[in-house]
C-alpha cells in the first residue's frame, strides 16, 4: 500500500516494545516536519527542547528592517555635547543676518529680521504662546542644533512660517511647530508632548501655506507611560488658507488618533507623502482621508516600522 504524507507509516502504528508515550513523541515530530514542508520552514528540536534554525542557530524574533537609530534622536539633535552655553533672557531679534550661538535662553524668541540664525543654543520658554515666533517680512530664519523645552506650558514650539529647523530637539510642549509657507523641518526630533485640558496635541501642524518640507524627522506623539497617542504626527487642514506643495518624506511617525490627520476642510494640491515608516500606537489608523483631492499617498513606500511591509490604507 502506498503511503500518504498525511498518514504515519505502518511501523509507527504497529504494536511494539515502544511505550505509548514514545509513539506519540514520534507522531508529534512527524507533524512538525510535515508543517515545515508545507510552510517552508525547517526547524530542529534539540535534546533540551530549544527551537533552532536549519543551520542550528537559535531562531530569532523579527527585528525592524531599519532601526530607530536611523532617525534623529538624543544623540544627534539639540545642543552638541560639550558645548558651553551662556545664560540669556528672552530675545527680540531685529538685525538682518544676525547670528546667535551658544546661549542658554530662559525666555522666548521673537524674530523681526531677515536671514537670522540661531545655532547651538537651548530655548526654555514657559509662554502659553510660542517659544520662537516669526513676524512681518521675516525670511529664512534658521535654527540649527537647538533644543526647545516648552516647560510644560508652551502652546507650540515655533510659529508660523519662513523658517528652517535642522537637528532640533523639541519636547515638553503642547504642540510642536506650526508650519506656514516656506517652512522646512529636517533631521529633527519632536517628542514628549504635554497633555492639558481639551488639548489636541500634534507634533507638527499646518492650517495652510505653501512650499512646506518635512524630511527625515522622528515624530513621536505617543506617550508609552500613559499609552496616550495624542492627536497626530502631522495635522493638515485649511483653516487659514489652502495647502500647496507639501512634502512629507523619510520620517518615522508613531502615535496619533490618526498618525496623519487630514481635516475635511482641507483644500490642497501636491501634498506628497512617501518613504515614511509608521509605528502602530495610533487610535484609529495611519492616515485619515488618504484619497482626498490633492493628496498623493505612495502606497508602495509608506511602510510599517516593525516589518517594512507597505501600510494598507483605505479612503
TrEMBL record:
Q: Where is this region: Disordered?
A: 50-80
Keywords linked to the UniProt accession: Membrane, Transmembrane, Transmembrane helix
Membrane-crossing ranges are 26-45
Q: What is this protein called?
A: Right handed beta helix region
Q: Which organism is this protein's natural source?
A: Micromonospora echinofusca
Amino acid at each position: 500500500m502506498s503511503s500518504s504524507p498525511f498518514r504515519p507509516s505502518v511501523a509507527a502504528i504497529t504494536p511494539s516494545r515502544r511505550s505509548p508515550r514514545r509513539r506519540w513523541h514520534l507522531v508529534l515530530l512527524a507533524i512538525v516536519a510535515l508543517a515545515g514542508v508545507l510552510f517552508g520552514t525547517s526547524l530542529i528540536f534539540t535534546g533540551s527542547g530549544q527551537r533552532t534554525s536549519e543551520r542550528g542557530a537559535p531562531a530569532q524574533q523579527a527585528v525592524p528592517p531599519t532601526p530607530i537609530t536611523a532617525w534623529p534622536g538624543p544623540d544627534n539633535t539639540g545642543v552638541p555635547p560639550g558645548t558651553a552655553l551662556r545664560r540669556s533672557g528672552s530675545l527680540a531679534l531685529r538685525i538682518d543676518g544676525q547670528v546667535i550661538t551658544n546661549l542658554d535662553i530662559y525666555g522666548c524668541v521673537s524674530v523681526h529680521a531677515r536671514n537670522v540664525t540661531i545655532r547651538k543654543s537651548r530655548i526654555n520658554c514657559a509662554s502659553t504662546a510660542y517659544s520662537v515666533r516669526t513676524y512681518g517680512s521675516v525670511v529664512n530664519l534658521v535654527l540649527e542644533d537647538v533644543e526647545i523645552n516648552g516647560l510644560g506650558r508652551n502652546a507650540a514650539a515655533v510659529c508660523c512660517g519662513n523658517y528652517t529647523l535642522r537637528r532640533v530637539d523639541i519636547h515638553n510642549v503642547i504642540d510642536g511647530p506650526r508650519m506656514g509657507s516656506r517652512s522646512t523641518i529636517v533631521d529633527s526630533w519632536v517628542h514628549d508632548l504635554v497633555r492639558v485640558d481639551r488639548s489636541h496635541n500634534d507634533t507638527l501642524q499646518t492650517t495652510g501655506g505653501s512650499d512646506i518640507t518635512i524630511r527625515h524627522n522622528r515624530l513621536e506623539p505617543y506617550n508609552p507611560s500613559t499609552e496616550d497617542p495624542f492627536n497626530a504626527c502631522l495635522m493638515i487642514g485649511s483653516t487659514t488658507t489652502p495647502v500647496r506643495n507639501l512634502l512629507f518624506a523619510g520620517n518615522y511617525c508613531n502615535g496619533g488618533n490618526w498618525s496623519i490627520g487630514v481635516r475635511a476642510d482641507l483644500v490642497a494640491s501636491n501634498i506628497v507623502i512617501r518613504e515614511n515608516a509608521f509605528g502602530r500606537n495610533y487610535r484609529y489608523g495611519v492616515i485619515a482621508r488618504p484619497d482626498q483631492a490633492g493628496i498623493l499617498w505612495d502606497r508602495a513606500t509608506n511602510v510599517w516600522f516593525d516589518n517594512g511591509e507597505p501600510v494598507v490604507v483605505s479612503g
